[in-house]
Structure formats: structure tokens, C-alpha cells
Amino acid sequence: MRITDSMITNLVTFNMQRSLTRFMEMQTQMSSGRRINRPSDDPLGILRDLDYRGELARNEQYRENIGQAQNWMNSYDSILANLTSLMSEAKEVTVSMSNSTYDSIARQAAANEVRSIFDQLMQLSRSELEGKQMFSGYRTDQLSLSGSSNGVVYRGDYGIIEFQIEPASNMAINIVGADLFLGQLGILG
User: Fold this and answer.
1) pLDDT confidence of 27, banded at 50, 70, 90?
2) What residue ranges in the chain does DSSP mark as E strands?
3) Could you give the angle at the alpha carbon of 51 between the alpha carbons of 47 and 54, nearest 5°?
4) What secondary structure letter does DSSP report for 102?
5) Beta pairing partners, 148
6) At a CB cut-off of 8 Å and minimum separation 6, what does 122 contact?
7) Which of 17, 59, 80, 144 has the highest CB neighbour number within 10 Å of its CB?
8) Half-sphere exposure of residue 147, counting CA atoms within 13 Å on the CB side?
9) Checking DSSP bridges between strand 162-166 and strand 151-154, what pairing results, if any?
10) How many CB atoms lie within 10 A of CB 167?
11) Residue 103: what are its φ and ψ, rounded to 5°?
């Protein structure tokens, strides 16, 4: 086979074109800071990259869910501490009024104090977080307890709200108001 000048020229041109293309790809990689700029650069690498991005997005969602769950738990801790304090006050009043040494004026003052404690308990039952009722189960748009002349009625449901905090793990974040505020009354009938 005879090698002609045009064959040598074509070969040199082809090699220079290939080198220039390779140089442009490397320059694009350097300027963008990415090894893969187009799907055709590395199809398998693109699949791995998309899997990693999906995993990162899921992890970020889990982190947000954990943050929200912690916010709910901190709010419940505060409310339960207030409830414990109010219940202790009510117990002190009832124990002190259990003997017959107090007159009707003292008993009326104690009744007013218990009424005030009851009103504070009702206010705590209406606590909201992020615009949602905290003790209404799934019915977060509805007040959990309402008072009437017949007593207190639970308006929520018994749904347990859960946040996914890992791929196979959910965390319950709410407390059902009927269990918390009316649970002991169920025993009494």
C-alpha cells in the first residue's frame, strides 16, 4: 500500500481534531468542576449520580422530619410541665379544703381558684404548633376539647401522627387529647 501526502494530511488532521476535542472536554471539566457534564460523558456515572442525589434528598427530608419532631416534642414537654404544675395546684387546693374548718367564703375562693386552674387547663388543651392543634389527633384544624354545661367534650380523633425519620422507622409525634385530659375520668365513669 502506498502512503500518499493526502493520507498523511488526513491522519494528522484527524489526530489534531481528536486532541482538540479531548482538550475541550478537559477544559469543560475543569471550568465546571464536574467530571460528567452530559449524560453521554458517562452513562453509568449518571445513574450513580442520580442515585446519590436521590439518597441525599431523602436524607435531607429525614433531617427536616427529625427537626420538626423535636420541635413538637419540645412543645409537648413544656405543655406537660405546665399541666403537672396546674394539677399539683389543684391537688393542694382540694386537699386543703377536705377538712371542715373552712367557712363558705374560703370554699368559694377555693372554687374560684379551681375554676381558674380549669380555664388554664382548657387553654393548654388548645395549644397550637405550626398552625395545627396539638391534641386533636388527625383533626389538627379542630379544637381538641370544648366545654359546655354538660362538661368537657373531646372533638378530635385518636389518630397518631408519625414522621418518617429513617427508611424503615417512623416516630409518633402527637399526644391524643382524650387520653391526656380525659383518661382518668374514664376510670371514674
Assistant:
1) confident
2) 128-129, 132-133, 145-148, 151-154, 162-166, 169-172
3) 140
4) -
5) 151
6) 145, 147, 152
7) 144
8) 10
9) unpaired
10) 9
11) -90, 180
Alpha carbon separation from 176 to 13, 150, 154, 156, 188 (Å, rounded): 78, 21, 10, 8, 19
User: Which residues make Cβ contacts (< 8 Å) with residue 135, sequence separation at least 6?
Assistant: 125, 127, 144, 145, 156, 174, 175, 176, 177, 180, 181
DSSP state letter for 143: -
The CB density around residue 79, as the number of other CB atoms within 10 Å, is: 18
| Helices and strands (H and E) in the chain: how many | 5, 6
Which of 110, 181, 183 minimizes the C-alpha distance to 147?
181
> Given the DSSP bridges, would you call strands 162-166 and 169-172 parallel, antiparallel or unpaired?
antiparallel
Q: Is pLDDT above 60 for 164?
A: yes
CB-based burial of residue 137 (10 Å sphere; 0-12 exposed, 13-18 middle, 19+ buried)? buried
User: Residue type for 61, please?
Assistant: Q
User: Residue 131 corresponds to which cell in the numbers above?
Assistant: 398552625
- The grid cell for 82 is 405546665
33 — phi, psi (to 5°)? 75, 15
Q: What's the length of the chain?
A: 189
- Alpha carbon 103 to chain centroid, angstroms: 52
Give pLDDT, residue 186: 45
Q: Which of 33-42, 53-62, 178-187 has the lowest mean pLDDT?
A: 178-187
CA distance 78 to 82: 6
